[in-house]
Design a protein that fits this description.
homodimer; 449 residues; alpha+beta; 2-methylcitrate dehydratase PrpD; 60s Ribosomal Protein L30, Chain: A; 2 domains; two-stranded antiparallel sheet; globular; MmgE/PrpD_sf (chains A, B); MmgE/PrpD family protein (chains A, B); MmgE_PrpD (chains A, B); MmgE_PrpD_C (chains A, B)
Chain lengths: 449, 449
């Protein structure tokens, strides 16, 4: 039995009762966060393009829902539209070592299928956990060489989505083997679009969710797939990785819960700014400092932060502001928050933010750099206007597993996401939160959202 | 301007009047051959699985037709089902140097779009030529290293299908640039399934046609894509090829018509058997020999033929018989034909075929091997029962561009394909032939097939 077969056995055998309570609760947390991320993109380009495509190519109605417009369609198009929508504002979850955003692909596919099949909240949770556990391990298996060219959430995301739907449909080992083959041979998504700021990121997550669902439905109907798509000589790793490590595929199955290692995004900026933002906020609160008392901020960072953030000198778009260490720290210092609304309304136009931005610099810190990417350390050195030098350190940014968001913090983020797009009133948002915290007792999911 | 941009310019500027008459006529030939290939798979696994998927996920009716059941659906699902169906019996066309089967992806996508948009036969032909010219050049660009792991008709096929639909929709240069990005980032398909004889080949052509169409419709609606998906640092060649050659992308655009280099499949067997089959048939006709007068046949072949065909000693399935040099030559010698019906009804059960099979051997021929793959040379040496040694040589197998099928031969093949599945009566088939030979005068294509 190879690692792929052991993974398939684990997926087939996994029962709801096997999953520890904290993992189930975290899965509900991640689900809430995903719903918020999807609703936050309502009306924002290119989400409406996917809605129109679904309308043009799909049925006029159906048992699965597109979150951004509430309309019914077939599961394929619900997965497509929800996959596009839930990654757009970049507030959805991230698993660090696999560099996979699991929610946008797993929940988009599995909710669509669950609505069509009349499945319960528990069945959704079990299936989602299977999708996270498989997807994260396959992402780790594909390695860093894969991520250099390929968008892992697109490629591996297809497999994660497929596994979640396969579990929902009650697949046995043999079906999981075929399912991995049918999903893996559809895996696609290249980073080239980043250079042009093109819309492919949404196409990638949309297609990963929808193609994963397609793989599961057609496998259920009898379509056979390659039996060794991950490790085989003409398989995924052979074609798209030079440092694949098969031991990651079945790494501590049943005892390590990779889902619980998944991070929430707290600030609405590039993740490379988060450690420093948290350290600055901590320092200002600890010292009771006002932003006008700060003369200079040196952030001590890893090289990757300099590579990515160093390109933005003076941000001229909201997107660029999210990649400007100075603008992010300016929002944090002046407004205490760097969420979607602050970026949209204040990052480019607030003179105090812009003034603070010019006080911020980055310096390479060997200790921070050595710890990366396993740990994202935050280090800031602040010089005050009255001549003091203060420093602060954060060893785990807010949202990471060891510093995760509490339910009240998740609820507040959720309501902010809904307010950003105006998709729901606060009262509607609160009612939705209440229903999602009861997810495991829901008998059907058709009217959940 | 790089090669991709020159290709986009050519595609945008191409006019119907630019295309030489023989290329248009050959395009009609290829279209007829494609319709026959699709109809031949009616009812054969896994075609009905794709029909059921379209029924489950798509609209109940629509302007585009699934060839195997005549039902209407949206263009996305018509492309999906026709893409799956038209590659199944492996009688569709092949372009040698790109190792691309263009018809199954190009026509599946473009006919579906043309039916929805009310386009004419001339518009279909122009768009199809664009798809062939681009797809073949992109296949050559990706090189042999790509084909070792990836199924080129799946990966590059997505781009070929997209280009054809984009031309049908009247794209300009800028749209073609975005279209290539949107199609290229969806390109997927691994050979791993071959090891298990799994159903992925149909999934690949189905998805290539449908995803290419998706890319074109969404590009038309404003979805942007990577501007250098083929040649870029994180693009298709960077991720999936080690011998890409950008000069192939714009190789003699407007003077070399790659469509006209495309081969028809004549015998229903593995193509490695075709040169020897043609040579034997030629020898028997030339000498007036009956199969019982033959004591021994030595086929002088290239190494690739030995690698692929050498595995089958005694065929036990119809599929294996297509990969048995002895069984193929047995059908040719005893029945004068090795088509789908002979394989199904005679290859395993006819004692004379089986007896002849045991008289056939393969030997490596250095001259044949050196010419491959540019030329597929056929060489046989026959020993007769009365002790004579006879030989014959064919330098271009039947169906290749220099030895192409005449319209009567194409019509006969078409009617055989229809008879194989029973999809149409001979009279219906003849009426269909008559309509397809009038393709360039058709005002709409909805009721063509």
């Amino acid at each position: 039995m190879n690692a792929t077969q052991r993974l398939a056995r684990f997926l087939a055998d996994l029962q709801y009762a096997d999953i520890p309570e904290p993992v189930l609760a975290r899965c509900e947390d991640l689900f809430l966060d995903w719903v918020g991320s999807a609703l936050a993109s309502q009306g924002a380009h290119p989400t409406p393009l996917f809605e129109r495509y679904a309308q043009r190519m799909g049925p006029g109605d159906g048992p699965a829902r597109m979150l951004v417009n509430g309309r019914g369609t077939s599961p394929y198009f619900a997965a497509l539209v929800n996959g596009a929508a839930s990654h757009l504002v970049e507030q959805d979850d991230l698993h660090n070592s696999s560099v996979l955003h699991p929610a946008t692909v797993v929940f988009s596919a599995v909710l669509a299928a669950a609505q069509e099949r009349g499945k319960s909240g528990r069945e959704l949770l079990l299936a989602s956990v299977a999708g996270y556990e498989a997807g994260i391990r396959i992402g780790e298996f594909m390695g860093r060489s894969h991520y250099r060219i390929f968008h892992t959430t697109a490629t591996v995301g297809t497999l994660a989505a497929a596994v979640a739907v396969g579990k929902l449909l009650g697949f046995d080992r043999e079906q999981f083997i075929n399912l991995l083959g049918n999903a893996g041979t559809q895996a696609a998504g290249l980073w080239e679009f980043l250079r042009d700021a093109a819309d492919s990121k949404q196409l990638h997550t949309a297609k990963a969710a929808a193609d994963g669902l397609l793989a599961a439905y057609m496998t259920e109907d009898g379509l056979t797939g390659a039996r060794n798509i991950l490790e085989g000589e003409q398989g995924l790793a052979a074609g798209m990785s030079s440092d694949a490590d098969a031991s990651r595929l079945d790494d501590r199955l049943g005892s390590r819960w990779a889902l619980a290692e998944t991070s929430f995004k707290f600030h609405a900026s590039c993740r490379h700014t988060h450690p420093a933002a948290d350290a600055l906020l901590h320092l200002m609160q600890r010292e009771g400092l006002h932003h006008e008392q700060i003369a200079k901020v040196v952030t001590r960072v890893h090289q990757g932060a300099i590579d990515v953030l160093g390109r933005v000198v003076k941000p001229s778009t909201v997107h660029q502001a999210k990649f400007s260490m100075g603008a992010v720290l300016g929002l944090i210092a002046v407004h205490g928050s760097a969420q979607l609304i602050e970026f949209r309304d204040l990052a480019l136009t607030d003179a105090a933010v812009d003034g603070f931005r010019q006080k911020v610099s980055m310096e390479l810190d060997p200790e921070v750099d050595a710890a990366y990417p396993a740990r994202w350390l935050g280090r800031v050195i602040v010089t005050t206007t009255d001549g003091r030098t203060l420093s602060a350190a954060i060893d785990e940014p807010k949202g990471d597993p060891g510093n995760t968001l509490s339910r009240p913090e998740l609820e507040a983020k959720f309501l902010r996401l809904l307010a950003f797009s105006g998709a729901r009133t606060p009262a509607e948002g609160q009612a939705l939160i209440d229903r999602i915290w009861q997810l495991r007792d829901a008998q059907t999911l058709t009217d959940l959202i």
